[in-house]
Amino acid sequence: MEHVISSKNPPRITFQNLSRVAGLFHGVFTRRGGVSAPPYESLNVAANNGDSIEAVGENLARVKETAGVEWLVSSNQVHGDGLNFIDAKAAKKLEVRAPMLISPPGDALSTNMTDLGLLIKIADCQSILLVDPDSRVIANIHSGWRGSVLDIAGKTVRSLKRLGLNPAKTLAAVSPSLGPCCAEFINYKREIPEKFWPFRVGPLHFDFWALTRSQLTAAGLREENIEIAAKCTVCGKADFFSYRGEGETGRMASIIGWKRP
Ligand SMILES: [Zn+2]
Fold this sequence. Notes:
Layout: E1 2-4, E2 12-14, H1 16-19, E3 24-29, H2 53-67, E4 71-75, E5 83-86, H3 88-92, E6 95-97, E7 100-103, E8 108-111, E9 116-122, E10 126-132, E11 137-143, H4 145-150, H5 152-161, E12 171-174, H6 188-191, H7 208-218, E13 226-228, H8 243-246, E14 252-258
Parallel strand pairs: 4-7, 4-9, 5-8, 12-13
Antiparallel strand pairs: 1-2, 2-3, 3-14, 6-7, 8-11, 9-14, 10-11, 10-12
The chain binds zinc ion.
């Protein structure tokens, strides 16, 4: 993982494995480099949490410009396990809200089309980026603890096999997110099913990074193809928005997309 800072574009986190794929744009933008005022300072990309619509629009324009794609595709994230696959037919049905196309509610976005930046909004939740360089199927998954319990990562990989994705060739990256240092679940016996308790790393703490790794390998990904940022958003509030750490705050943009040749 490397931290890319550019004077012109907002900074973002990139991953070594995905950086090796020709024609692919990816990155998890930090909270820096945007125009939103506190408590959304500054690169907030969510328009439904109280921030100014104009500021969010400017932030999205900067993200899109940096990504170099024609459109950003986003959906209302509902902490479920639903997948929206965007092919040419589905793309025609998306709601246009420039610079975004809005897909039906769901927490996983996937496509094999060029010029669509799949956007997941996060503040502690994981964005899990997937690419199969051969079939060109890419995905961006929103997975908080509810998504982890639902195994949205594994379900998405299995669904995408029908659309040509080969898990053994697929590269994955996991964004900065809630780390084992801060993932305290006081009511875990009620909230988290017992089969996930082996991922407990303290009396009340869980390692959701390890859990995602295990769900991806169970779905057929190779251990060496999974890269985890291993940066905790709660601990890193200077760089990241954190819902647990701050309450009312912004959402960061995580993007993957094929650029035009
Ligand atoms: Zn932490």
